[in-house]
Structure formats: C-alpha cells, structure tokens
C-alpha cells in the first residue's frame, strides 16, 4: 500500500512516499544505539536542495541511500554522511549544493530533486 503526503513550505514542496515493506517489517534489526526493533517502514523522502525533514515523535530513522535527479536518471550520492540513527525531533537535511549535481543536465539547481531512502523504526 502506498500513501503520498505533501508538505508545503515557502518556495519548496516536499513529497513523502510511504510504503510498507514486508521484508523490513519481518526482519529484526539492531540500531546503532543498541536497541532492538522488530517493525519498520521503508520511506522515500524527496525535497529540493536545503530542505529539512524532522523525525516524528516516537520514531527513529536510518538513512539507507541519498540520490539526486533532474527528472532523468538518479545519481547516488556517497560524499554526504549522516548519523547511523536519527532520533525523534532530529532533522535530516538535504545538501544545499553538491558537486555530483554538475553531472546532471544543465537544469537549474532548483529543478534538482534529492531523494532519501530511509527505514523508520517505532520502538516497542
């Protein structure tokens, strides 16, 4: 099941795609803080450069992947590092500028979309 949520921020529209993943929910994962979690949701967060996402109360996020795209093919970003686990209230920010963006077409930087793949855990 997929759900889409839109958040309007001045001059930026953030799009969050939610999808329940059977392999994510079925596997037991260990987070970096040592707590065991048995259920998670895989999410895809998309936003323009400089956007920020806040981890919801009672949740924690683990960033799996960051890509950038101008509507064509995505480029995986490996030069940006994030903490192993982001806890409730912490912010996940998209970079304001990346050298990898120069590899894409001559689209204006405002046309570029950053996409995070994350796992969201809800402690039991």
Describe this structure in words.
The chain is mainly β. The protein has one domain. It is 4% helix and 46% strand. It has 1 helix and 11 strands, in the order E-E-H-E-E-E-E-E-E-E-E-E. The strands form 3 sheets. Strands 1, 2, 5, 7, 8, 9 and 11 form a 7-stranded antiparallel sheet that branches. It has a two-stranded antiparallel sheet with strand order 3-4. A hairpin with a 5-residue loop joins strand 7 and strand 8.
How is this structure best summarized?
The chain has one helix and eleven strands.
Q: Could you estimate the helical fraction of the residues in percent?
A: under 10%
Mean pLDDT: 75
Helix vs. strand class: mainly beta
Q: Secondary-structure element sequence?
A: EEHEEEEEEEEE
Oligomer: single chain
Number of domains: 1
Cα shape? elongated
Q: List segments where confidence is low: pLDDT < 50 over at least 5 consecutive residues.
A: 6-23, 25-29
- Main beta sheet: 7 strands, antiparallel
**Rg (CA only):** 15 Å
Distance between the termini: 23 Å
- Give the percentage of residues in beta strands: over 45%
Q: Count of helical segments?
A: 1
Strand element count: 11
Features:
124 residues, 11 strands, 46% strand
Set out the fold topology.
Elements: E1 2-9, E2 12-19, H1 22-26, E3 29-30, E4 36-37, E5 40-47, E6 52-54, E7 60-69, E8 75-76, E9 86-87, E10 91-93, E11 113-121
Antiparallel strand pairs: 1-2, 2-5, 3-4, 5-11, 6-10, 7-8, 7-9, 7-11
């Amino acid at each position: 099941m997929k759900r889409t949520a839109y958040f309007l921020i001045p001059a930026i529209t953030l799009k969050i795609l939610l999808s329940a993943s059977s392999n994510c929910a079925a596997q037991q994962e260990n987070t970096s803080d040592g707590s065991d979690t048995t259920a998670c949701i895989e999410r895809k967060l998309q936003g323009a450069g400089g956007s920020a996402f806040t981890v919801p109360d009672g949740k924690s996020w683990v960033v799996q992947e960051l890509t950038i795209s101008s509507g064509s093919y995505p480029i995986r970003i490996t030069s940006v590092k994030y903490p192993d686990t982001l806890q409730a209230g912490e912010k996940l920010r998209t970079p304001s500028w990346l050298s990898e963006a120069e590899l894409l077409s001559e689209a204006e930087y405002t046309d570029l979309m950053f996409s995070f793949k994350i796992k969201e855990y809800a402690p039991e």
